[in-house]
Amino acid sequence: MRAMLSVAIATLLSGAVLSGSAFAADAAKRETRIPDQAMATAAKLRETALASDLGYRITESLTTEVGPRLAGSEADARAVAWAQAKFKELGFDKVWIEPVTFPKWERRSESAQVLGASTQPLRLTALGGSPAGTVEAEVVRFADLAALEAAAPGSLAGKIAFIDYRMERARDGAGYGPGGKVRSRGPSAAIRGGAAGYLMRSAGTDSHRMPHTGITRFDEGLTPIPSAALAVPDADQLARLLARGPVKVRMALDCGWDGTYTSHNVIGEIRGSKKPDEVVLIGGHLDSWDLGTGAIDDGAGVGLTMAAARLIGDLKQRPARTIRVVAFANEEQGLHGGKAYAAKHQPNLKQHQIGAESDFGAGRIYAYSSSAPEHAKAADAQIAQALAPLGIEYTPGKGGAGPDIGPFAEKGLAWARLAQDGTDYFDLHHTPDDTFDKIDPQALAQNVAAYAVFAYLAASAEGDFGSQPAAASTTPVGK
Amino acid sequence: MRAMLSVAIATLLSGAVLSGSAFAADAAKRETRIPDQAMATAAKLRETALASDLGYRITESLTTEVGPRLAGSEADARAVAWAQAKFKELGFDKVWIEPVTFPKWERRSESAQVLGASTQPLRLTALGGSPAGTVEAEVVRFADLAALEAAAPGSLAGKIAFIDYRMERARDGAGYGPGGKVRSRGPSAAIRGGAAGYLMRSAGTDSHRMPHTGITRFDEGLTPIPSAALAVPDADQLARLLARGPVKVRMALDCGWDGTYTSHNVIGEIRGSKKPDEVVLIGGHLDSWDLGTGAIDDGAGVGLTMAAARLIGDLKQRPARTIRVVAFANEEQGLHGGKAYAAKHQPNLKQHQIGAESDFGAGRIYAYSSSAPEHAKAADAQIAQALAPLGIEYTPGKGGAGPDIGPFAEKGLAWARLAQDGTDYFDLHHTPDDTFDKIDPQALAQNVAAYAVFAYLAASAEGDFGSQPAAASTTPVGK
User: Fold this and answer.
1) pTM of this structure
2) Which of A119, A120, A436 to mutate to test the interface with B (most CBs of B within 10 A)?
């Protein structure tokens, strides 16, 4: 997951233009409902999914056989091949790929050490997008991003700026808002201050020597500087050393952009029985950062949505609409797969019933919400009712679209949110520790069950969930 | 901590030669007792120590200012200088060093990767004592040491032997017995099988990508092979890959022995009031592995024993005997400091009242025992009584001497064991994650209190705890 999408679509996409009795009449005419038979089938599907280890096995396959799969690396192509083969092996009715082109960033080596009387190594990792470079300089500590942004221009000349901000743990990942900004905005602030290098305490909630990488950006017109995140204990150590006096650090990063690369969104479909050209879109992203094997981010999202669709395909009676699973390319470095999908499929936006991406690990899903407009709220509540036995609360109006769904949701796609418990997510996120052993098979099965129930019911609904091209003035989906 | 010393001295050192009424008369004559006044002072000392953060601050100082301190590295000398300066700063009455010479082993670089269709890096670390070398070979998995030892000679020609044994978690560290043997004996077994390289699942109980290093040995007459430990998740990954078919791995270690080095045991004393030439010996080891900053192993041991002695020195009335704190050199690679101390001080063995080393982290102490012979059992029970309010159980006859005390205990030194809760110890032991943030200040203060109470009371006792040169036939203290 690159970024939390925390702002809900605030306006109902169509209802807002109707009023009074005209609205009531219209609503009655086009009210979306889910047939009782589908609700009964969903209850059985839920139990089947809970008892299945399919999602767990698919996640194991991806993270083991492909391993780390940085976008643009040799493993990117292996991941694309894996996803195509897996869709076919699982009996999906249609499998295809769509090209996604993006700039390629490489990590080659990275190291750092405290110099002088307390010389010792520090564990860090380059931020995605950082240039290469070796900087040997005194470190200036800032408590948070605001403190660095307040530094006078040029005041950090020849120094390494270090933001020592400690990210907070939260079930919904709320701490990643401020934590992620330290990563995305810190380097540019450091450059404005004149710094030669940038260090940050990792945007993570663990206490292991596992630095958290992630993409950063440099504002237009600035000359990028080597930028890296220290593991949390190493940030602690640096802060303790700084409390004792001046500290000089040598950071050496060999990494950088190198041309462009074309990867692919990999798409598989379980075809619908009556309206096969209308789709419920679910998925995760296929790329990962290079440090771990991308289990929680986002092998699980790919595995659990593939499994959910497959279990729907196993039903005696298929739902009316098609279940489309997308394994998105290069989410991590800028939602490239999500943007490419939105651009390509915009002409068919209305044929997309609703979309949901799993990209927040595989902790138990605890809440459900969607962008359902007034005429689909009853159906939305039906979905919530079918999810309730999984311990999922109905929280209408909360949250937003998953990252790769975001660009399409901005164009008007209806979205659902199946909120995963992310209490421990940022212990592992973007670190070497994001590995398959961290996946709880029971929690993953609960995720598969929730996605299966959601997708099946949305695909079975009589009526729509409000997807339609957004007016230019529509409030954009937040990032 | 290099090795668990789990075998108690089974024989009482002197009582065994006495019998019947002769014994009773002798016992009455020389029964060791602790004066009531000392018991009262110990109770106050205990509360003072619990409220003090001195041990925590000393541990912080060592792990921060010196950092990792592999025996023989440049940091070894910095650690020796730190310990001397710290003893002086703390006002110890006498501070000196004693040379300890040992072979020097260096780690320069290490990496590994799976080759072929699932190519991906594996995180490992060379075992201490491993030679350098690059091996590219198929991996043969063994469930445990016995399975590898049963391999036919030559059957592993050109292969990498991999022991996939999972160490068990236990409060007393019992799982390290079999786990540690995989490290100490596995490489020789692999060589006998003809292997070109040796890999093991780390002897650790964590699930992080933190390989656990530690010393290994190669049996006489064998040609050492590159030997390393995989992080636990990487061992999981390798096992999953092997379950799918043959796996070829490239392991590249640059490390090895390089001449000898002379470090020092650093010794500080709080002088006794009446029998200053008799000493109660406490301490920890100053060296650490290079991956972490040696907080639980064994900065805490050094910090808490220094603090305990210093708090005893702060008392209005000093105990009769001297409290001697030893920061032992190079425990990790073969108890070099402990052996040097025993060799040098053997002539004065009887002047050592009793010894105790803290080298099992800084978890709460939950049990007390010692080698006290019959005539000192009442005093031993008094010590246990003074420790009880700290939640410490009296477990006479259990356990053995700490590692660096071991060589001297084999020669006849009386020893005590203040058993630390090691439930989490092997999550961190010998990994990069052994850092100061893992120390719980409250638990460390409890340790300081326990060591202070023990050392103060042993130094105040009227009578001895049984130190005397061991007969040649005495059962050796187990390793």
Assistant:
1) 0.93
2) A120
